[in-house]
Design goal:
The protein has 433 residues and is of the alpha/beta class. The protein contains 17 helices and 16 strands.
Length: 433
């Protein structure tokens, strides 16, 4: 069987990564976006997204991957994915207007036997409500995008979850050929089940995050050390070695809070109970403010107009995204504080802080600072010796929620080190990393 030609509509983060991954599987891909300026950048191999390994993967695809702003070019495709990122509003709810506009452009240009696959994350009922093509050529596929690990995830997917009109019937052969090229389990189910499966996965992730944040905060008060407890949980078969048990500053990014907002809204519509979800959100927002509470207690209450260095603005490492960034949320609560900011890829202007300066390097940001907050765990920050940090700073307080620094080295350098899941290092009960 000749390999199908695969189209992707919507060259957002999801679309660029997904199309590049499918092209790397040997498929000719047509990558469509109506934004001519964006397409011109992509044709020049100037990627607007940051993902480790993506530039190299795109270069390796050679002539298989074609970028276009003409929707008619999709008419050569056997399978067309809708890969538009779905934005969220301030309440976490999805805005599908851009996706709906894209559908209006794409559907009239499908060839008669092509199948359409919704890859964008949507709420239950969305895929079934699309008017065309017919349900036997219309699918929903759960996306696997994780910012900063997107290339790894697209090349080595754990499984494909596929929403169908009738999961008992065979998948469209062209669509199946694309999925089978990546050698992972394929799980067909009803449209609504697949749409809700993505949300269910994220709910389990949120539950793990909430356990880690709740119990690590207790550790800070009773003299326990969370990272000593984690291995016991990883070895429990009911929890497992891949559980997400690292504490952090709440739920970051856009997708997790979107899914919680979706469940709360659906529960309100249908009269089901979502109080546990509301509690997860409350716990997340409490933990998000840890840095503000700690800074006020240990620095702001004792100094006259102190200078605070901040390392990291992105919501996590290896991405330019600041959606729901704990760093920006922290800075928004400290408008009166002098801050000097550094992030490897995000400009200081993204913080919108009235007293912010931008530093050219992490150590330049720390120079003469009274305190340092490490709010994004970029790899380059891990390489900076705590002794160099202590030598640069005027003060000694370091807030490092993600344990970027080695705690023993930080204490040896004379730093007053605060992290999640253990008492501060000036507490004699504390054991090092």
């Amino acid at each position: 069987m000749k390999k199908p030609v695969v189209g992707f509509a919507g060259m957002t983060h999801l679309g660029i990564v997904s199309a590049t991954g499918v092209a790397s599987g040997g498929f000719e891909t047509v990558c469509f976006d109506p934004d001519e300026t964006l397409v011109a950048r992509l044709q020049a191999r100037d990627l607007p997204v940051l993902e480790p390994g993506l530039d190299e993967l795109l270069a390796s695809n050679s002539g298989r991957q074609h970028f276009t702003s003409a929707a008619k070019d999709l008419s050569q495709c056997d399978v067309v994915y809708l890969s538009q990122d779905v934005d969220t509003d301030d309440t976490g709810r999805s805005n599908t207007s851009a996706l709906n506009a894209l559908i209006d452009l794409v559907v009239p240009n499908l060839k008669p036997d092509a199948c359409l696959v919704v890859l964008s994350q949507v709420e239950p009922g969305f895929t079934r409500a699309i008017a065309a093509p017919p349900e036997d050529r219309r699918y929903y596929q759960v996306e696997t995008l994780v910012f900063g690990r997107a290339v790894e995830r697209v090349l080595k997917p754990e499984r494909y979850i596929v929403g169908c009109s009738d999961p008992a019937k065979p998948l469209n052969p062209n669509f199946r050929a694309v999925l089978e090229a990546f050698g992972c389990p394929i799980l067909p189910m009803r449209y609504e089940s697949a749409e809700l499966a993505k949300i269910s996965i994220n709910m389990c992730l949120v539950a793990s995050i909430s356990v880690a944040n709740t119990m690590s905060e207790l550790c800070e008060q009773v003299g326990a050390v969370w990272h000593e407890i984690v291995p016991a949980l990883k070895l429990d078969q009911r929890i497992g070695p891949y559980s997400y048990l690292a504490p952090g500053l709440g739920i970051a990014g856009g997708n997790l809070e979107r899914d919680l907002a979706t469940v709360i809204a659906l529960a309100g519509q249908h009269g089901t109970d979502s109080r546990v979800v509301e509690a997860w959100l409350a716990n997340s927002r409490h933990r998000r403010d840890w840095a503000v509470r700690t800074l006020r207690q240990h620095v702001l209450a004792h100094g006259d107009d102190p200078l605070v260095a901040v390392w990291g603005l992105a919501y996590k490492e290896n991405t330019r995204s600041v959606k729901n960034s704990p760093s920006l949320a922290t800075l928004a609560q400290l408008p009166e504080v002098r801050v000097r900011l550094h992030d490897p890829v995000v400009p200081a202007s993204k913080a919108g802080h009235p007293r912010a300066q931008e530093a050219a390097s992490a150590l330049a940001a720390a120079q003469d600072a009274d305190a340092l907050m490490i709010l994004t765990p970029w790899a380059e920050y891990r390489e900076i010796p705590p002794g160099d940090i202590a030598a640069a700073m005027a003060g000694r307080t370091v807030l490092d929620p993600y344990r970027v620094l080695d705690s023993t080295a930080a204490r040896s350098a004379g730093l007053c080190y605060h992290t999640l899941g253990m008492p501060a290092l000036d507490d004699t009960r504390q054991e090092g990393r």
